[in-house]
Amino acid sequence: MKVLNFGSLNVDYVYKLPHIVEAGETISSEKLALYPGGKGLNQSVALGKAGVEVYHAGAIGEDGRFLVDFLKNARVHTDFVKVLPEEKSGHAIIQNDAKGENCIILFGGANQAITRGMVDEVLQEFGKDDYLILQNEINELGYIVERAKEKGMVIVLNPSPMNEKILKLPLEYVDYFILNEIEAAQILRETKQDIDLKRQGHETARHLLEAFPRAGIILTLGGAGSVYMKDGICYEQSIYQVDVVDTTAAGDTFTGYFVAGMIQGRPMKEIMDTAARAAAITVSREGAGVAIPTREEVETYRFV
Length: 304
Prior knowledge:
Layout: E1 3-6, E2 10-16, E3 31-37, H1 39-49, E4 54-60, H2 65-73, E5 76-83, E6 90-96, E7 102-107, H3 116-123, E8 131-134, H4 141-151, E9 154-157, H5 164-167, E10 176-180, H6 181-187, H7 202-211, E11 216-220, E12 226-230, E13 233-237, H8 250-263, H9 268-283, H10 295-300
Parallel strand pairs: 1-4, 1-8, 2-6, 4-5, 8-9, 9-10, 10-11
Antiparallel strand pairs: 2-3, 6-7, 11-12, 12-13
């Protein structure tokens, strides 16, 4: 069994601010930091640090070569990362406030220059029961999903950032959805007001299961934790309390560790707990990919 993450690679420009900038406001940044990022890269790093052999596929410009080195240092295979000299690497402008909350502007760059020829070249190296992990920061997602389904791959979708592109995908082919309550509501075409966090996400997860009965649903609920549902089984997981520094890669860390646990055949209760622990450690640190802990750190970290 092989694991392929076909996803984004970004250069993150993180500005430390007292608060998120409001319309018409100009404020000075306390600090500027440059980090490797992108939901795809972050999830591959989490998988690699969790002990899974993972291949990353995607595209960068010449300015993003350091992202390849970063992936390699996290034990991620980079054979399928293309350098496109005519493109700029994707990047993100991230506002990080005093409470650790973020506001993010994305520029797709090379992430939006994936061709079907590139997809075919990558997927010819993978087959039945191999895992494919996708987010929504690259183009040609529909083609990737269709080709992966033809090959019998296990498709894991994190539909973030959520937009109309996701609703046009053949979502019935997805084996696992990892998403938050707002993304779930949008897929179900509900409004934000339809989501009551006091339900702990159970009703929302059940609605998703009704819409996609063959899929597994992993719903993250912020401070309310997370819930897993599949084949009549339900697991709830609470969060681990930490001092929040930067939430940028929290969801990506959770996703990477969750998928790693499944691939490693661990019990679901342990998978959910480990993913929550890893995400908590990540938000207690600055940056995205650089903040993701190793499995040894996750297993030995002492929460107050």
